[in-house]
Amino acid sequence: MRFSRLIALALACGATTACSGVWTRGAPPEPIRITLVGINDFHGQVEPHRTPLKDGQVVEEGGAATLAAYVARLRAANPGGVVLLDAGDMFQGTLPSNLTEGAVVIDVYNHLGVDAAAIGNHEFDYGPVGPGSMAQRPGDDALGALKARIGQARFPMLSANLRDASTGARPAWTGNDGTYLMKVKGVKVGIIGLSTEDTPKVTNPANVSSLRFLPLAPAALEASRSLRARGAEVVVVVAHAGGKCADLSNPRDTSSCDEGDAEILSMLKLLPPGTVDAIVAGHTHQTMGHFFAQVPIIETTGLARSLGVVELFVDPGSRRILPQRTRIQAAIPLCAKVDATQGTCDGRRLRNEPQVRLEPASFMAEPVVPDAQVAPLLAPALELAREAQNRQLGLVAATPLTRGYTEEGALGNLVADVLRASANADVGLMNPGGVRADLAAGPLTFGQVFEVLPFDNTVAVATLTGPELSRLLHLAYGNDMGSVFAVSGLEVTLERCPGPGRFSGVALSGGQPLVLDPGKMYRVALPDFLARGGDGLEPLLSTVPPERIEMTPVDGLDLREALVAYGKARGGTLEAPDLGRVRYTGVAECQQEAR
Q1: Name one GO biological process term (predicted).
Q2: What region, left, alpha or beta, does residue 524 occupy, with left being phi > 0 and alpha being psi -120 to 50 degrees?
């Protein structure tokens, strides 16, 4: 009789419904799906990239409104299960962002519902609130602009490896300890933010002189243990540190990944298994979508051209991730319209096509409709930018001027010439990372020059002995990335293969070998960013007596103003300098491998 009652009760509950105190044969509950959406190195790209095509059309790629559409579609596919993370460098790089010191980006991110962001090196670029990229007056706060953006954001900005230099404590102004604990579909998800250890070298060092950036791995381990102790069942790192993988076709195949110069992989190798469950990376502007030690890592090329996705599945009983179910979608292009033939909106691929047929893009089987609510958020900043963009400078570029990075470029040479001429120096030196766009031929506007030189660098001068100048050149050209500094007043000879011993000789302009005289002093003009030790020059410049480094801007000019003054002094025309200031020795194969 009792057995019959139990059978009847089970039938009443239904074959797949669990009733208190009753065993059923229903299917086990489905794993909990958590969708991690990663973006990185946004760099103020609130507007889409626009590329004119040969047939007169304009193709658009990325931008805030299209990004919002993709995020909305992912949320619709997994309601309540999406975590949107940014891996840093949110602000610096466009007129709308720079003129508002990043405020327009925070408005967009608040609208997007960003859950957390890492603090990138360029978050420190703006210095105090208002004009000027560094503290110059009593009371100026070198971190003022960043603090204002933290106060504006409705999401935490995180850096678990950030410390106050004088006390060793976590800075109170971040409002957190570098971690964030949130619930996603009932699962406790811990987020750890990290900043590249190289931050002082890749922002204005003066703005971060009160801070220290600790090694990533120990900071991540400590933060993970703290989060686990607070109940975190899933731990995700969002880091402004990255790597590079050339082939995204198979996330389990890491043979195309550069593991020798990948800060995020170096960190992961030092962590015990199980410390973190997923990583959203940034900083290197290179793609990743791979499993390393069973940990999924995603990164995009940045600039709002794409996003990455990691799908995690959590067992509802054990509350552990089911690693065999984890899926990666790396570098999903952000397109509102695509070419019907190639299925892309990448203007770099379409600009030379004789005919392009644009059609609405689709994502996850739904049409992409850019978010109309973004436009009103952007309007005030875009109006400011439009006024600045169109301001004529009275200058003309005689020919297109292109930049270089791992090769010498005419535009870099021109900027090095500007530095040397502005300071009446013996040598001009310009880092390739400071030149951010090519310059088209024709009349120039402020906006075009700003895109080339978006950082508020000023013209500084270091007076060096012959051995000091030699050491400076060894450091400039001895980086592992193979970047080639632009030089003026000298010619340099480099080994083909990047590395600390790459610089091998120097000559006067024209090729006459030069022995740097130990008894002579050389005036070297360079951006203040370099004069403060940026881009790896700190080991030498930190040893030079302060009275031999002139940080007060030459004639009060920033580098953009110096470029304009240089052009006007030459009749209003910028000519392309000849190439040939950088020569190579050694086998050609090394240069190819370094790319």
Answers
A1: nucleotide catabolic process
A2: beta
Do 85 and 308 touch, CB atoms closer than 8 A?
A: no
Which residue carries 């210095």 as its tokens? Answer: 127
Sheet holding 392-397, edge to edge: 442-445, 392-397, 573-574
Distances (CA, A) of 449 to 60, 213, 452, 541: 22, 33, 5, 29
- Side-chain half-sphere CA neighbours of 241 within 13 A: 28
Cβ atoms of 291 and 253 closer than 8 Å: no
Residue 22, Cα to own-chain centre: how many angstroms? Answer: 55
Grouping H, G, I as helix, E, B as strand and the rest as coil, residue 118 is strand
Give the whole-angstrom CA distance, residue 525 versus residue 522.
10
Query: Checking DSSP bridges between strand 278-280 and strand 82-86, what pairing results, if any?
Result: unpaired
State how beta strands 392-397 and 573-574 pair: parallel
- With a CB cutoff of 8 Å and minimum separation 6, the contacts of 400 are 438, 439, 440, 441, 576
Q: What are the respective helix, strand and coil percentages of the chain, to the nearest 5?
A: 30, 25, 45
CA-to-CA dists, residue 499 to 158, 478, 482, 494, 563, angstroms? 33, 5, 7, 10, 31
Residue 293, Ramachandran bin (φ over 0: left; ψ between -120 and 50: alpha; else beta): left
Which ranges of 410-465 would DSSP assign to H, the alpha helix? 410-423, 446-452
Which residues have C-beta within 8 Å of that of residue 573, sequence separation ≥ 6?
395, 396, 397, 398, 567
* 475, 509, 543 from 466: Cα distances, Å: 14, 17, 14
Tell me the per-residue pLDDT of 46-93, one tens digit each, with 9 for 90 and over: 999 999 999 999 999 999 999 999 999 999 999 999 999 999 999 988
pLDDT attached to residue 8:
42
Q: How many CA within 13 A on the CB side of residue 14?
A: 5
Distance CA 27, CA 19 (A): 14
* Look-up of token digits 């893009």: 361
263: Cα separation from own chain's centroid: 14
How much is the CA Rg of the chain, to the nearest whole Å? 27
SS3 312: strand
Tell me which amino acid residue 114 is.
Answer: V
Q: Which residue type is seen at 71? A: V
Count of CB atoms within 10 A of residue 320's CB? 13
What is d(CA 332, CA 72) in angstroms, rounded to the nearest whole number? Answer: 14
pLDDT in tens, 306-349: 999 999 999 999 999 999 999 999 999 999 999 999 999 999 99
* Whole-number Å distance between alpha carbons of 370 and 373: 9
Angle (CA) 134-568-461 rounded to 5° is 40
